Amino acid sequence: MVKHIIKIPGLEDLNLKDCCIYKVPYNIREVNKDAYTPQWISIGPIHLSKEKFKPMQEQKKRYFHYFWERVSNEEAMKNYKLYLKTEEEEIRQCYAEKFPDLTKEKFVDMVLLDAVFIMELLLRNCKWKSENKRHEQEFQPTKSFRQRHSEDPIVTQPWLSRNIARDLILLENQIPFYVLHKLYEDVVPCQYKQEKHTAGFVDLAIEYFVFYDTQMSSSDKTKKHSSGSPKSKSEDSSRDPKYVHFTDLMRGSYLSRTERKSDNAPHNLRTATKLKDSGVSFEKDVKRKLLDITFEKKRILSSFLCFGCLPCLNHFKARFIIPQLKVDHTTECVLRNLIALEQCHYPEKPYICNYVSLIDSLIHTQHDVEMLVEKEVIVHELGSDKEVATLVNGLCKHVVTNSTCYFETLIYCILYLLYIY
């Protein structure tokens, strides 16, 4: 009789249903570690202990002091900290790792400091944008604003502002969205809540990140994508059900306004240059959401009087209509983190992964990029078209999807190619 096989100590139950903040899977992270790693500031527990973030920890404390002066409501701040204490377990459940070395007190203080820092940063950003509409989508504070905030290196130095914003969208560098939403609703005084922010904290956050995507300028556009994010387990009104954190907010800003049927894709597309040689044209669209790609067929001369005998009426004009993709030195970081989020959190709705895979199919060489740039489907600030091709071709490495939301688009294109040949 076997009395002992292996000794396993008691294990904590694995609760993943509330988890939304993850460490990027190792194989994906190894492709480009820098794209997932904060450079200037740590938010949340994952990168908390790193020595290089200590200077910015001091700046967080200064922001806490500024926020305290802004609020001037000790009771509201005490109640918010009490709320964090009661929610501590739920907040921990948002992380894939539970960080047992962080005591309850240290964990709550960390979340409080990070939440207040983010809120003060967003309020300051809103202030200088309202003072200078000309620079609404740039990190270029006016001279008068710099003079009044000379003690603040973040809002007065554009390069640092941009790098902080970059760190705040990283998947590993998040605190739950509902924690920030609660702080905004219960603590931020009414005089700092602008009428244009009809969606409250969502709009305040969108205004901060708008330089990543000019289509983020209205909450009405992002509200339509909120169904993609899972609702929180609690019906507590303090929780905003739309987004789970800033990375999720970025994802929502790119999603198509219409639901698409997803299914297994038959095979990859031909490249952009080969499709062009087959008679497919490419057109940009600057108004659509980034993921709203369509393939259209239109009968030649279909708008004119038809006598039923012209042979050209059996032929079609085919075109891809693609929202303009702007590529700069932040694009890879943004897309990689959105892809990582979907791999961990939205395996059944990998819409960003599907988009990148489709663009990757169209681009194999710099010649494909050159043609798409000529059509203004892509505009970029990189050194060459070859760099764009290299960037796009590397995004899908180790990425796994079981379906694509472009199933119908691909089918229509394939049927067209079969027809003309």
Structure, explained:
- With 421 residues, this protein is mainly alpha-helical.
- 45% of the residues lie in helices and 6% in strands.
- It has 17 helices and five strands.
- The chain has a three-stranded mixed beta sheet with strand order 1-3-2. It has a two-stranded parallel sheet with strand order 4-5.
- The radius of gyration is 24 Å and the shape is globular.
- The chain starts with 25 loop residues before the first helix and ends with a helix.
Topology:
Layout: H1 26-29, H2 54-71, H3 74-93, H4 104-131, H5 143-148, H6 153-156, H7 158-167, H8 177-186, H9 201-209, H10 219-223, H11 246-254, H12 272-277, E1 280-285, E2 294-299, E3 316-323, E4 325-327, H13 331-345, H14 351-362, H15 366-374, E5 378-380, H16 385-394, H17 407-420
Parallel strand pairs: 1-3, 4-5
Antiparallel strand pairs: 2-3
Organism: Cajanus cajan (Pigeon pea)
Region (Disordered): 219-240
Pfam families: DUF247
Keywords:
421 residues, mainly alpha, three-stranded mixed β-sheet, two-stranded parallel sheet, globular, DUF247_pln, UPF0481 protein At3g47200 family
